[in-house]
Amino acid sequence: MVQATPFLLVLFLALGAHGVSVKKVHAELFPLQCILTGTWANDLGSNMTIGTVKANGDFTGTYNTSVSATREKIKESPLLGSQHLPNMLKGQPTFGFTVHWNFSDSIAVFTGQCFVDDDGNEVLKTMWLLRTRADNLKNDWKATWVGYNTFTRLKEQ
């Protein structure tokens, strides 16, 4: 890296002279890391906390939804997931997790990718499937729901 330093300095100076954003070039050469660990809130007001991602990509956490079709009291529910580690080297990993709802007879699975936007903010773009219990085979058609959520990191206080 020591040998690359003079080259990068000359590159940044040359690009800066031609009006190319040094920040943009730096982001392309050294992509910002998007880390799943932490507390996130989505566009519907739900929040989740993801614990440390283990060396094999596995993680656990909790999910507290702000929306539900049940009349039961909403309770914080456990989540279990995995991050695709080879993508971590590129800075914006794919991941998936399952939420076992503690207050209803349903399970949700999320899949998504962690991005860093142009302002350096981490964003989780997800798609989910929620399976509720059907009373019988005839009612199976209405037991699976699908949706999208965007999560942003909550700032620590």
TrEMBL record:
Subcellular location, principal: secreted
Stretch forming the signal peptide: 1-19
Location in the cell: Secreted
PROSITE patterns referenced in this protein's UniProt entry, alphabetically: AVIDIN_1, AVIDIN_2
GO MF annotations, alphabetized: biotin binding
Keywords for the protein's UniProt record, in alphabetical order: Biotin, Disulfide bond, Glycoprotein, Secreted, Signal
Stored Pfam families: Avidin
Superkingdom of this protein's organism: Eukaryota
Disulfide bridge positions per record: C34-C114
Functional note: Forms a strong non-covalent specific complex with biotin.
Protein name: Avidin
